[in-house]
Design goal:
By secondary structure, the chain is an all-alpha fold. It has six helices and no strands. The protein is globular. It starts with 7 loop residues before the first helix and ends in a 23-residue tail after the last helix.
């Protein structure tokens, strides 16, 4: 089975130097780099937190990191979460700070 993606990132061919650098990384290190790259950044959270393909990618790369770390029990829930994003059985929870008065810290307790 072959997969074809047409994103700009995959169209660009890596330079020989970057290929050499990638070849020097272990499978786990490559997965960690990919997981970091696909993780939703704080500035993009509100824009992407309900984007199903993005959330599935994030979960699957995290699962791959755990799997390559010999932690299949940690990988499985992330694979299931990714599947939930793709089959629409999972939805994003509401943002805990929406609807709160400005200046009120909702992440601490009194």
């Amino acid at each position: 089975m072959t997969f074809s993606t047409t994103t700009e990132a995959t169209k660009k061919q890596p330079s020989p130097d970057s290929r050499l650098a990638l070849a020097s990384l272990s499978d786990l290190e490559l997965a960690q780099v990919l997981a970091e790259r696909l993780a939703i950044k704080p500035n993009d959270w509100h824009r992407l937190n309900r984007n199903r393909p993005v959330r599935a990618q994030e979960q699957l790369t995290a699962a791959l990191v755990y799997l390559l770390s010999q932690k299949p029990d940690e990988a499985l829930p992330r694979v299931e979460q990714a599947l939930g994003w793709l089959n629409r059985s999972v939805t994003a929870p509401p943002c805990p700070t929406h609807g709160q008065p400005k200046g009120r810290d909702t992440h601490t307790s009194n």
